[in-house]
Input
Amino acid sequence: MGRRLFPNVYEGWIVVGSAAFIMLAMSASFFYGFGTIFTEVIDEFGWSVAATSLAFSLRSEVGGIAAPIVGVLIDRLGPRRVMIGGLLVSAAGIVIMSLIQEIWHFYVAMLVIAVGSSAAGGQVGLVAVATWFEERRARAMSFMTIGGGLGGLLVVGIAAMVEMMGWRVALQVIGAFMATVGVFVALNIRGRPLNHPQPMDGIRYADDDIIPEPAVRWGIPVRTVLKSRPFLLLAIGMSLYAFGSTTFVVHQIPYLEKDIGVSKAVASTSVAAFTVFSIVGRLGFGIIADRFPKTAVLAVSTGMVVVGLVVLALANNFVTAMIAILIISPGFGGSIPVRPAMLADYFGTKHFGTINGLGSLIMTTGGAIGPWFVGRVVDVTGHYEFGWFVTAAVTALAIPLFLASKPPVALAAEARRLAELEPRTEGGPDMTTAGGH
Output
């Protein structure tokens, strides 16, 4: 659809834009937006902070468990079919959540949403985008993930909708949007077909007589990747990183309401500020990562999150808390496009969906433990200070792991050599294998 409306635009950028829109809707609803109903749910049912936080931890962990399966489905069915299915499942889950009466209903709804959002989230878009770009891969992924960042700007609107309509009706409206507008936009998302007429990265050559060779679809075998030192270091490092970053996102609004004493409206504006600076980080670190070692770029972005969490632990007023948030946000945003770009650079795009999914599974372990742990700390101590110090320490452990994860040069060279020997034929679902060129 999009390529027919914009025939002179490199199709890879159309895929980027469409995936960014889906990420915007998903992040606004399921990642940032759930913070707006956190207090309402506790007030209505009387559940503890830890019990309520456990649902968010389940969402992260089940999403991580589903990620490898989703990755395999992307590699076999193509990103478009997986994306549409994920949107419909997510919409169903959020409507189920609007009808909950017991805490186990809440957990079931979160499980359905976790599966759906895993199949409709950034993982699918990143696999598709990776096939359209090589030289500008980190940049393209940073533009795509802007959608996820912009979702935070919509939190103010979602919070207003929750206050006007009630949290149940607000969830039903969001679910209907996902099942209609979201599915329509997802029709534009596909991997690059073999022998696509437009040059890779959309780079046009000054000499029209130059016909670039089609990009080779290569990839290190999944079993080899899982045994490699770079993958293990990156995956464990991202798990430690997610312990802190996911905890912050889940507890940002409750922390400002409980410890700092501001209203929900004021707390929601902090999410908007976090989002704006996160976008700056996504763009800035994404562009830098195409020019400098991605390991160093990822380490710097993680360091910013660590510093911000420490400042957050020491904050006793809204101004100091906002300073901490503005330190965390660009570091948080910068890591989002750099990690998948590293995986595609290191291990190729042939099996990228599966590899990225397996990495996400390991990563979300930390994202599942963190929110529950801090919620438990709040139940015991009555405040967030100790929890933020622990998240900062755990996140800091990721930095040396990132710096030690060097590219698997020999493995990549062998995979490229074998790919050169394979016949280049069209194929794959919808003429678009998730990792094909």
Observations:
- The CA atoms of residues 233 and 404 lie 7 Å apart.
- DSSP finds 19 helices and no strands in the chain.
- The first helix runs from residue 2 to 5.
